[in-house]
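thread from #wetlab-drylab

HS: before we spend reagent money on co-crystallization trials with zinc ion, can we at least see a predicted complex? here's what I'd submit
DV: go for it
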Amino acid sequence: MDRPESSSDHRTGSLTSQELWHSTEERRTCQEKLYEFLEILSAYRLAMNTINWDQTVSGAPIAGVGFRSKGYGVLTREHYRFLVDPEFRVLLEAFSREAGTLEGDIAREWLIELKRIEKIPKDDYTEFMTFLSKSEVEWEEAKRASDFEGFKSHYRIIFDTARRFSEYIGYDQHPYDAWIEMFEPGMTVKKLDRFFGELRAEIVPLLSGIREKISENPQHYDFLSRAIPKEKQEAFSRRLLEVIGFDLNRGFLKESEHPFTNAMSIDDVRMTTHYYEQEFISSIFSVLHEGGHGIYEQNFDRILANTGLDGGASSAVHESQSRMFENAFGRSKAFWRKLYDEMQAEFSPALDDIPLDTFIEAINRVEATLIRIEADELTYSLHIMVRYELEKAIFEGALEVEDLPEAWNRLMRDYLGVEPAHHGEGVLQDVHWAAGLIGYFPSYALGNAYASQLLHFMKQEVDVERALRSLDFGDILEWLTLHVHSHGKRLKPEQLIEAATGKPFDPSYYIQDLKAKYKERYGI
Ligand code: ZN
């Protein structure tokens, strides 16, 4: 297998910025060259994102997947060619020695990615990317048909490749670390074991206490399954996005199987939700969740656009924003005080007889369910724990892909007391593995914990309750933009949390929030 030329080109690593430029004029020329590369790389990324969007949302014919995958493969290859271009490498090495400049930050960020990718043989990398673009489409069909047998060879290829890539990339302690690091720089299996350990110790007993309460006094909220036409849900979704401050002139909302956000650029942020006529709150919380992601993508400092420092600091910091909008804001009574009247009117007569308090109780109920994206705030991290443990076990060789469904069902039973009737609501429910997003799941749980810590300190400066009551997100967005959004990737997750809150990351804010909220909700 041939390796990228620049990985063996040691000469490039020893050039210094002084050798590249001796004057401001020469530096400017180098800077222009650097930005030229960044623009080319952004253009390829835009094209690849557009193909993804076309496949998952626009309903491109399944029959065309072969030709699209081929085209996607070419784009990936060309993108890679520019990425490992020796001239780009020389520029990055030179600028990376600059402290306190934007170009220095840009260069250091790209070198991390570049050094990782250079360790993976080019053919292996391209083949994997092409495979993923196809497998993501085929997953939809497999999920619909609940066909694990037909899809397991895909999972096998993906996990085998993931393990192989870990060996190429390298890791300190655990092969899974190489993938976790990609989404959450600085995070490791060792730290996550401790984090999930604390969560398990606190949440599992709390959940069993709540289950006991529920079995003594079952609460039913049948109104949640009253039929709401899709068009009405669509109209209200747009209203929700407007309220939370998503700029609808620079983005939009469509529908897909699995809700997600795809930022084509800072001025073109696309999100999806999924409408279920008989489960209207599903889309409401998907829209608030993706809206949190979308706002983050719209609010970073504009000078970072197309530099590679645009977008979120990490997956977990991204998730902290989506979960904050979904849970801390979206499930609060203050948020719904005015908005509930609007929703009742929009969905009339479906909710005419349901008072606000009943709605608030219903959206804050705890219920062990099968589907992660439908999970309540308390059981959510347990769903993540299931996936974390399975991924870890596969990397350790303690679990074979073949045995995933059985292991999945067992963990669901152990943590949540429920078991899927078919794989579509079990091991096939998430697109992540099919899309090669191994190591991504822990971000969701970490994101919840980051959100709690950020909010705790935001409340010392912003009257969040009043902002929510008046549906005026101005002060909230100002705080988030200043402390989180504007930085893009310029701060690493740990730096960002510490800079925003004055304290290193501490999961106890999250655990205390959950305990306080749900003990009160269930009178424990
Ligand atoms: Zn998310």
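DV: Residues 1-13 have pLDDT under 50 and may be disordered.
HS: ok that's useful, forwarding to the group
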